[in-house]
What we know:
alpha/beta, TIM Barrel, ten-stranded mixed β-sheet, binds iron/sulfur cluster
Amino acid sequence: xxxxxxxxxxxxxxxxxxxxxxxxxxxxxxxxxxxxxxxxxxxxxxxxxxxxxxxxxxxxxxxxxxxxxxxxxxxxxxxxxxxxxxxxxxxxxxxxxxxxxxxxxxxxxxxxxxxxxxxxxxxxxxxxxxxxxxxxxxxxxxxxxxxxxxxxxxxxxxxxxxxxxxxxxxxxxxxxxxxxxxxxxxxxxxxxxxxxxxxxxxxxxxxxxxxxxxxxxxxxxxxxxxxxxxxxxxxxxxxxxxxxxxxxxxxxxxxxxxxxxxxxxxxxxxxxxxxxxxxxxxxxxxxxxxxxxxxxxxxxxxxxxxxxxxxxxxxxxxxxxxxxxxxx
Length: 328
Ligand code: SF4
């Protein structure tokens, strides 16, 4: 199930849930009291195995990846495997020294902006979080590190999308990713009812199309909301075609959660579809069994979810990853 629209075949790593913040919407429930990390000795071989399976992008997320001590070595391992790299950060710990360590190692740094400063600080649970992010971005811009912005949009912050787009473009972001807030993790407790519904999704989908025209040639605008009417039926892969297929041709993104469990498509995907734990076996040893014994079940579950989603409804705008996670 390939959901990225490009040639990017992404392995997404969550090496730690350690974070300096405790955001209201954190799907991984990360925070300052969590210390556990996936060791580099596990993640570096995993990167090699993922490259051998056809993945070409390593995306490091968290927790706050800049607090993962072995981040430079992890990025070096990705480069040695011939993979492009992205790092998703809350932007508040971007000191000059940290930014210098990222230059030449990160293809794209993505920083989170949740709205105008008051909204951002509220979502991040920290007064002054926006000011820290702005200061960090100054180091990023000064170092010439390519960067993008991800806007996690809630029902209430959706009207601030144009503000976020302007903020990002004025500082030289090359990408704006609009992500619909999900009631998962801490958001279940702290932001009940804040996820955007179909009407807000529809307005955002239209606004994103407008922003694409406004910032054409300067900043790429992605939105992870789809019009259900645009979904094609899943073309099932036949068992004979799957046996020797590289995993990246079957599943992207592939997600390594902070406890070492590998799941398809997105953090929090139902674990009955997990490949297993890289703390117990190498990815290269997990893949053959999953591909032979589990992939067809996963594919059938996604096919059923797509069939449901393709039913006509009045307001057909949804976050595809979230719907799949809910429905498989
Ligand atoms: S959303 Fe990101 S910055 Fe906020 S607590 Fe979670 S990992 Fe940390």
